[in-house]
Amino acid sequence: MFLKWIVPVAALVVVLLAPDGLYSQSPDAASVQGALVNGTEGGATPAGATVLLHQFGVDSGSVDTFETVTDAAGAFSFDDVPPTPEDGSAALVALYGGTRYSRVLSPFELSALAQSGQLTLTVYESTQDVGVVTTASQSIIITGIDASTRRIATAQIFTLENHSDTTLVPDLSAPPMIGQFSFLRFSLPADASGLDVSTELVGGEVIPVGTGFAITAPVQPGEHLVSFTYTAPYEGDTLAWRDNTLQGAESLRLLIPDEFGDIAVGGMAVLEGVTLGEVSYRVWGAQDVAPGAGVNLQLSGLPEPSWVTKIGNPLSEARFWFGAVPVLVAVALAGLLAWGVIRRRPTGNAG
């Protein structure tokens, strides 16, 4: 297992056009000044923190890195920095509390900096309380069924939210006590294989934990996306597993393409179906699931081996979801499947 980072490299660079407010008047040497701001209420002044400035060349593809340390007031200064080429770019990075923070600036923001002469980057104090992170939405999407081998391919999409003013930084220095973990955990069906994880979180790794896996990356305040795909075996025509909802879930949804036939689902209420792109889905859901409360899911009526050995998308096509996830979450799943929009069907039966 390994972590695939879906955040584009371009999202980590800052386009600097060398405004007068940031640079000295010398055409050969520049002084870039700014300060780190602690976004945690009552947090310490970020003194003695390492700050990096990366300059990316345009023609040669070279990268020049400058390093400094904040003073007692959290201020920093890079001296003798060559002017950034007009078509070049740069990234400002701070290392604080075991976490790497970076800031992306638009041309409009650069214009404002040129007037103020200050560049600020917000950092946060760390916490090991995983309870600061909750799941705003979780979608389980059946992407393929192989009747010949009785395996089902699934993609899960999580929108996580750190609602605190601290960064969750997992402590891996000592084994956690039973029931106490400082990192994000996710459930998998029994004997699941082919796990492939994609996330916007930077750093850390994917490790097996209990009946699923964990991500040890720091989680800064705000929203973050995590998705993963896997395949799991089923017996007869049934697949049952418990989703432990370890971070809770304000909205939990299960989507199965209409083309897979009349598959029945137990454990969640039937919702109105939706169409995403060219695929129509039947939808089931639950709302306001408490952390660790769990949902017992059961799929029945799955296809069994016959002269038709495979239906739907090949299992290998589950990787498609890595490319489609941002669009689905931002447009379809965050909109069409919102609980304020979806109407519950008149019948309460899950089938």
Describe this structure in words.
It is elongated, with a radius of gyration of 24 Å. With 351 residues, the chain is mainly β. Helix content is 8%, strand content 44%. Mean pLDDT is 77; it is low at 1-26, 316-332 and 334-351. A hairpin with a 2-residue loop joins strand 6 (89-96) and strand 7 (99-103). The strands form 6 sheets. The chain has an 8-stranded mixed β-sheet with strand order 1-14-17-11-10-19-22-21, covered by helices on one side. A 4-stranded antiparallel β-sheet has the order 4-3-6-7, with no helix packed on it. It has 2 helices and 23 strands. The protein has helices at 107-116, 320-336; strands at residues 3-5, 30-38, 50-56, 63-69, 75-81, 89-96, 99-103, 119-123, 126-127, 133-146, 151-162, 167-168, 184-187, 193-199, 206-209, 212-215, 222-233, 238-243, 249-257, 264-266, 269-276, 279-289, 295-300.
Question: Could you describe the largest sheet, including whether it forms a barrel?
Answer: 8 strands, mixed
The strand order across the widest sheet is 1-14-17-11-10-19-22-21
**Counted beta strands:** 23
Order of helices and strands: EEEEEEEHEEEEEEEEEEEEEEEEH
Number of helices: 2
Helical/strand content category:
mainly beta
Terminal-residue CA separation: 35 Å
Secondary structure: helix percent: under 10%
General form: elongated
Low-confidence segments: 1-26, 316-332, 334-351
Radius of gyration: 24 Å
Overall average residue pLDDT = 77
Key attributes of the depicted protein:
2 helices; elongated; 44% strand; 8-stranded mixed β-sheet; mainly beta
